[in-house]
């Protein structure tokens, strides 16, 4: 089968097309003919050797996948050949940038007909991270609170602002070039961080800061004394938070198929919007361009590779 692979520590231009063996289907596995796979920053971290694990080299990156069931293992009972499905699998397994991927049944979810393959593949890590940021125990965004979202127009950010609004919050979000996009997602106040000194201009404006881009320490002044701050990125300074009694934490998203099922159902009902910046073809040049956009830090929403 065709795959787009790269060696560990390889550069973006080192992605190449390669023929590899179709993955083995174990008794509890579902073989998916891949139709779409979305790009996540963690893919680049894996490629650069910045994670505590390594994929087999040459690596097939990609965790958030949608497609059609091609084969099922002997113990699989909930899926049949031809089912349209999606999955967000373990990042230390990869496998998405290929024509087929084999995934344990417990991680596979049926895709609603109203949701496209591209939309389904663009949920996964980004949507789960955002949902878990907004709804983390003891940090959960409450109705009537003001939430400041740092990086509102990125993959995680576009979901975060929507979930915060669902919880009844007043949402302030930063971007440099996507004001209209954030307004379309019902953000109450859009901040151009290139034109304003955000920590000074918005000091004490928020009950909670959700930092999606790793600038939480610098942006902490926006939080009122005794407030809360969360990030999935660079940890926020304990000392800076303690100065004003701000409760902080850093989360690592957890795979949760029940939450993903809820989120894809929201998309099918029109209650959640999947923002996709670009869809690239499943060719060497397409994958390279996808990672160039991802690593630029300027994508508006998600980036998807259309495999089929």
UniProtKB/TrEMBL annotation:
SUPFAM superfamilies, A to Z: GroES-like (SSF50129), NAD(P)-binding Rossmann-fold domains (SSF51735)
Domain (Enoyl reductase (ER)): residue spans on this chain: 10-305
Domain of life: Bacteria
Species classification: Bacteria, Bacillati, Bacillota, Bacilli, Bacillales
One Pfam family here: ADH_zinc_N_2
Keyword field contains DNA-binding: no
EC number of the protein: 1.-.-.-
Protein name: NADP-dependent oxidoreductase
Stored SMART domains: PKS_ER (SM00829)
Keywords of this entry: Oxidoreductase
Matching PANTHER family: PROTEIN AST1-RELATED
InterPro entries hit by this protein: ADH-like_N (IPR013154), ER (IPR020843), GroES-like_sf (IPR011032), Lipid_raft_assoc_Zn_ADH (IPR052585), NAD(P)-bd_dom_sf (IPR036291)
